[in-house]
Every structure is written in C-alpha cells, then in structure tokens.
Write a structure and sequence with these properties.
By secondary structure, this protein is α/β, with parallel strands linked by helices. The protein is built from 21 helices and 19 strands. Strands 2-1-3-4-5-6 form a six-stranded mixed beta sheet, covered by helices on one side. Helix 17 packs across helix 18.
Length: 607
C-alpha cells in the first residue's frame, strides 16, 4: 500500500471503548480518504459526544484507497474500523457524513466492502442501520434507496435521541423488527425515512408528487441547535500519523452566515448565525493545544471576520501564544471586513495564507450573486495586505454564474491584474520580485435550497471555453491561474439537483468503477456519461435545464427553515441584479428561519 498509516490505529486521542453487549456500537464513516475525512469537524463533534455516553462506543472508518481496496477484495478482508479493526457489518449503526455529491460512489463501495447489501430494501436485522447526515441530506433523493434514514440538519442533539431509541431496540433484540424501529425513529424531528415516501413522475419526467405513507410527516424539518455555546467544543481531536488536510487546531467560532450569497448552500442551511463565547473559545483552544501539540490555530466559520469579537479574540490568542510560536489563521476572510488591527495580529508569529473571494469579476455580477463587495474593497484590502508584508494573495472566483457574460470573464482578468499592480506599487526590493497573485476559478454548480436552485448550469463545453479564455488572459510573471476540473462540476451539478431516479446512475457508475470522483486524477467522466445513458437519463435534464419556480422539486419535502418564498424572491432579485442587505446589520430579510425557531434573540449570537 502507498500509505499504510491510513489504516492503523492508536492515534493520539483516539478512543478504544469496551461496552456491554446491550450497548450501541456506531461506526462513523467518512466516504473519502483518511487524510481528507479525519479533520472533518462534524465527525469530531459526534465522536466526542457519542463516546461520552454510557454504553455507547463510536469508532471511525474511511474509504480505503484503490490499492487497499484491491488487497481487501483479493484477500476477502471486510471493511473495518480503525479503533478496534472490528467488522463494520457487526456494528449497530453505520453513519455516513455526506459533505458533497462526488463522494457518493464511495458510499456504495464501502457498503459493498463491508458485506452490507447496498439497497436498504435488501437488509434485515442482521445488518446495521445505515444512516447519513451532512449537507448532502438537504436533497437526499439521489441516495434514498441506499439508506435506512437521513438526519436532516444539525445532529448534536438529535443523535442522543436516536441513540436512546436504538438502545431500547437492541435491548429487545434486533432480530426482524427493523420496520418497527424505523417507525419509532421517524417520530424524532429531523429524521427522514425514505422508504416511507413514494415519488411519482409526469410523462415529461418532472416530479409530480412526493407522497408520505406509513403515517410519516408530509414535511421533514431541519434540526437546529439554538445555542451553540451549549454544545461542547471537541477538545481532543485525533492527531494523525500522516499529513492530513487542515492538520491543525481548527475551532468553529460561529455557525451560520447572513451575508446572503445566492450561490451558497451553506449560507442557507446553517442559518441562523450563532456564536460561541470568547471565554469558551479561549478555554477550548487551550485544551486542544494541550492535548495535541499543534502549532497553528484556525478560527473557522463561513465568514470568520463577521464574528462579533473577532479582533478581541485574535488579540487575546496572540498575547497568549505568540511567545510559544503558535500562529493564528482565519481561513474565511471577506475583503470588506479586513482591518489593519486584524492583519497585524495574524502576522505576529507568521504570515499564514490569505485567500479572498470576490466570486465574480464585475460589480454587476457580484450584485447578481449578492456578494456585497466593490472593486475598491478588493484593491484596498490587497494594498493593506501588501503593506503588512504579504507577498502572495489568492483570489477565488466562479465561472458559469447566472447571467454571466464575456465582460464578466474579462473582469476576472482585469481585477487580478489590478491587484498585481497594487502589489508592484506597494512592495519593494526582493519582496516585489516574489509577488504572486493566485487566481483560483471553480465551475459553478447550482445547489438545492438556494436561490439558484432553479437556474441552469453551463454545459461542459461552455465551461471549458471560459477556462481557455481565462488561461490566455491570466498569463503573466506575477500571476498564477488554477482551475477546477469542469467535468467534476458537471457531474456534481447533475447529482445535486437529481431525483430518486439518479440513484440508478450512481449505482451504475459504481459498477463501472467510479471511485474518488472528487480527485482530479480519479474522475472517470466517460463512465459517468455511460452510467446516465445506461439508466436512460440525460444529465442535462437535471443540470442544464432552467426550472420553473412552480415545478415540484425533488427535495421539496425537506424544510431547511428558510422559506421557498424567500428563495424565489432572492432569485428574482438576482436576475435584476438587486442586492439584499445583511440582516445582522440592517432590517430582517424575512427568510423565515428565526420565525420558525421562535428565537428572535439568537441571530446576533452570544459573542
């Protein structure tokens, strides 16, 4: 194997726990490589919560890389957890984290390696309940036939209710009463049992109706933790034996975002904004560093500079840890919220990377997506960073956004060159020669539960033509152009807004050998094309077709708290390039989430 440390155990802070035969064993699965899945904050939180419960043991399992899969299949080695190398099929629950659509074939592959029937209808009491949570569950339909249940929303409180029901189930013997336990679990708010719903279609292929049966609720409402400060921070993250992505002390300082970027699914499904207290953060970071020895602290959120006391927290952490050589980083920065004080505090130990996301090249298109920043904001922030000693800045853009024109593409080139110009005028000596502006461009995929859920996605040919235009325009000594594989984005877009029939495509793609589709070198685009064809489906029907706001959407029975009326209104405003102001700074935008929670006071957090 290329990286055997992916599969060994006994990492620092991992938990090996003995429980009674009537206890609940849960395998927490991340369907990607170990180094990608290990730092996932959601699984870290659940790992500590579950292992803190009496008679509950949580262990981890990740997708075996292709070399390991080959060995496992050749030697008939079933999928196993890291902590005890126990057979995943012997656990009571196998819980997957669905972070994005390009890991769905890995889910099927892990089920098959575990010896668990891939389709939920083929499982009985001998097999674990197969469940899923994460952002992918806001449209669970493309995976519906494979899962016993989905957890919709934030799981910190829901998971304990689920475990309580499962303990009763196991106490009475798992046996053949799978239907009975699913009926009981369906009564927990936020639990979606796909087998309790039928989907019908019109002759033109549109969804006619999603019909609840077995007494199930017509609408599944997302679970929301009202007070984030009541949820313990994970203070013993597992330290890997190998390099992992985000291998540092990562702390969630706030959850949610009210900036209202219309392309951003996370900005919708994690509303409302909730903040941890400064005291909780300082104390939690101290314990994490004590338990891990990390030398970098990352203050993580969708928009870290919007945290109420961000400068105060960064200053306090710098005062405590600068002499120990521990650096502070903010992975999510806004160009209109970047201050001299903040940049100087970040740089006290070392200058960690700076990434800013203008998203679009012209003011018109930034208004379309509700990215309320100006060119002046971008250039003045770049000047500030250069003045404080940074020589490398990364700018993130998207192509294929609704209403995009060639002028918008040229705007990306123009802004990048203007930032280079600011750097050349600001830096001097050797620093000027080391100046680098990295332009990273991804291909836009409309996502469910966003204002752009009705918009069309560009075709592969359109994306690649735009990438060639930027490749020519962004050549230069101080410029570096990086682009995302548009083939992956096309597949992602077709799955993201797919209905239950797309499960056949995912299953066929897996049969054809698709694995690790998010990895550029692993994506088998033609096999995906064949999978759609073999399933008698057209990916353009799901991705490239603009949808009517009156159309029944495959995910319409999943209520994330933000009203359909608000999303539709935002889509109309986008087409007119009209801005919607941040509701933390101005009047309520009536998205519906706070009214549904009956929690007017939580929007501003506890920071």
């Amino acid at each position: 194997m290329e990286k055997p440390s992916r599969y060994i155990n006994h990492e620092l802070n991992s938990v090996r726990k003995e429980i009674s035969k009537k206890g609940i064993k849960i395998a927490l699965a991340y369907p990607d490589a170990y180094e990608v899945g290990l730092p996932n904050m959601g699984l870290q939180i659940l790992y500590e919560i579950l292992n803190g419960q009496e008679d509950v043991a949580a262990e981890r399992v990740y997708a075996p890389w292709t070399d390991m899969e080959s060995i496992m299949r050749k030697r008939a080695i079933p999928l196993f957890t890291l902590e005890t190398h126990g057979r995943v099929a012997d656990f009571d629950v196998l819980g997957f984290s669905l972070q994005h659509e390009l890991i769905y074939t890995n889910v099927l592959n892990m089920l098959d390696l575990a010896g668990i029937p891939i389709f939920a209808a083929d499982r009985d009491g001998r097999y674990p309940l197969v469940i899923a949570g994460g952002p992918g569950t806001v449209n669970p339909e493309p995976l519906a036939p494979f899962f016993d249940l989905f957890v919709i929303g934030e799981a910190e409180e829901l998971i304990l209710e689920l475990v309580g029901t499962l303990k009763d189930w196991k106490k009475n013997g798992r046996g053949s009463n799978r239907f009975d336990v699913l009926k009981r679990l369906s009564k927990i708010p936020g639990v979606y049992i796909p087998s309790f719903y039928d989907v019908s279609y019109d002759e033109d292929g549109l969804v006619r109706e999603v019909q609840a049966k077995e007494g199930a609720a017509d609408m599944i409402t997302r679970r929301i933790v009202k007070d984030l400060s009541e949820i313990p921070m994970p203070t013993r993250p597992i330290v890997p034996f190998m390099d992992a992505v985000h291998d540092r002390c990562s702390v969630e300082i706030m959850r949610g975002c009210t900036r209202g970027c219309r392309f951003c699914q996370a900005g919708i499904i994690y509303r409302p904004v909730r903040e941890r207290t400064k005291e909780q953060l300082i104390s939690g970071i101290s314990r994490i560093l004590e338990h891990t020895g990390y030398e970098e602290v990352s203050l993580s959120s969708l928009s870290s500079t919007d945290y109420t006391l961000i400068e105060d927290v960064v200053r306090s952490l710098s005062d405590i840890y600068t002499d120990q050589g521990i650096s502070i980083s903010l992975p999510s920065l806004r160009v209109d919220a970047f201050s001299v004080e903040l940049v100087r505090e970040i740089a006290r130990v070392k200058r960690t990377g700076l990434t800013f996301a203008p998203e679009a090249g012209t003011q018109r298109l930034r208004d379309v997506v509700n990215k309320n920043v100006t060119e002046e904001d971008i250039l003045s922030t770049a000047k500030l960073a250069f003045e404080e000693g940074w020589q490398r800045i990364k700018l993130y853009f998207m192509i294929g956004l609704p209403t995009e024109t060639k002028d918008d593409l040229q705007g990306i080139v123009d802004i990048a060159r203007k930032v280079v110009g600011v750097g050349l005028r600001t830096l001097s000596g050797p620093a000027k020669s080391r100046l680098m502006v990295v332009v990273s461009v991804s291909a836009f995929a409309p996502k469910p539960q966003t204002p752009f859920q009705w918009a069309r996605q560009d075709s592969l040919e359109e994306f690649e033509e735009k990438q060639r235009f930027l490749y020519v325009g962004l050549k230069g000594r101080h410029l570096s152009y990086k682009w995302h594989n548009a083939k992956s984005s096309v597949i992602e877009g077709a799955i993201a807004r797919g209905d239950r029939r797309v499960a056949d495509v995912i299953y066929r793609a897996w049969q054809l050998g698709c694995r690790f589709d998010a990895w550029t070198k692993e994506i088998k685009f033609q096999d995906w094309v064949s999978a759609f064809s073999d399933s008698a489906l057209d990916p353009a029907f799901f991705a490239e077709r603009e949808r009517s706001c009156d159309e029944v959407l495959p995910w319409q029975h999943i209520d994330v708290g933000v009203s359909k009326r608000f999303l539709e209104m935002e889509y109309m405003r986008a087409l007119e390039a009209e801005l919607t102001e941040d509701c933390r700074l101005n009047a309520c935008s009536s998205c519906g989430v706070c009214q549904n929670l009956n929690a007017d006071n939580i929007l501003f957090g506890t920071g």
